[in-house]
Amino acid sequence: MKATITSTAHYVPEKVLTNSELEKFVDTSDEWIQSRVGIKQRHVVNEGEASSDMSTEVAKSLLQKRGISPNEIDVIIIGTVTPDHPTPSTAAIVQNNIKAKNAWAFDLSAACSGFLYSLETGARFIESGKYKYIMVIGVDTMTSILDFKDRETCIIFGDGAGGVILEASKSNSGILGSILKTDGSGAESLNVLAGGSKFPASIDTINQRQHYIKQDGKKVFKFAIRKMSDVSTQLLKENGLSGTDVDLFIPHQANKRIIEATGERCGIPKDKVMINIDKYGNTTAGTIPIALNEAVEKNLISDGDYVLLSAFGSGFTWGSILIKWNSKN
Ligand code: UT7
Description:
By secondary structure, the chain is α/β, with parallel strands linked by helices. The chain has 2 domains: about 5-170, 3-Layer(aba) Sandwich (Peroxisomal Thiolase, Chain A, domain 1); about 175-275 and about 295-325, Peroxisomal Thiolase, Chain A, domain 1, CATH 3.40.47.10. It is built from 10 helices and 13 strands. The strands form 4 sheets. A 5-stranded mixed sheet has the order 1-7-6-4-5, sandwiched between helices. The two termini are about 15 Å apart. The site of oxa(dethia)-CoA (UT7) has 20 residues, from helix 2 and helix 7.
């Protein structure tokens, strides 16, 4: 039995932050951001708006598009590194917001790979035969951990959420395979140091700006291209395919140059690579499901198409998932 995606949705906050606005409080330029990263603008939450709010919008839209009631959802999995609170989970808050009273719900932490890890987990639950409908959401409110004095990070990220409903495929289509990886030796290159059990919040951690995301951009850049292209190529090969067989490649949207180099290394034609980083920036666990839903809404995917997803992020975590699209099931 294979799992298949039968509903997609996304939500981004209304408020837009342009590169020109960023120029006013950090030493950068619209020209630099567009040429080095490919971002023109990003959406950002209003004060008081959190990951559960964006996820709840996605969840409602997923249910409405699939035409099922909240009671039918068995499990809610939310990939995020910016939960509303350390506990309870954002998934529990969403479960209550949408009144999915038969669902159990949990968050999964894998940074930019959060949606892929969650999708893999949900797919395996479907394959077990125990569950019928699983909701998988990737969401991040990156502005809650951004240092607007650090030009290496604050220009990259944005806020947003996307998700899917998974159910058992009635054919041989759906999620064909996956390769997911972790290398914890990369922890120092991309992290938020404080606010957990190692460095609980204190006056010192705040004064040292340790609650913000920090990265070694150059190192992450190189690893991201190499690791995403290696697993994508391997996954295609395992399924008897090559880059030219891919109908749509939806990579994590971290930097346009990373996206283009990865697609090239996998031998995927440029016009088959989904890019929307210009509008949203890097929404961490949100990028892939947002792009997936945009692709569905723009009719860029048809049943029978090979859709390849790939991500790389903090941990390091990375991976690829291959889908033979089958939305009508
Ligand atoms: O989702 C996973 C998380 N993160 C990533 O995937 C990020 C991966 N890394 C990247 O996307 C890129 O490394 C960055 C966008 C972070 C940086 O781009 P880069 O092309 O690697 O820039 P760089 O660090 O090589 O810096 C080039 C120059 C430097 O100036 P000098 O030394 O050549 O005079 C930087 O100081 O650009 C300068 N610079 C900036 N200038 C204007 C760095 N950031 C900025 C900025 N605005 N925001």
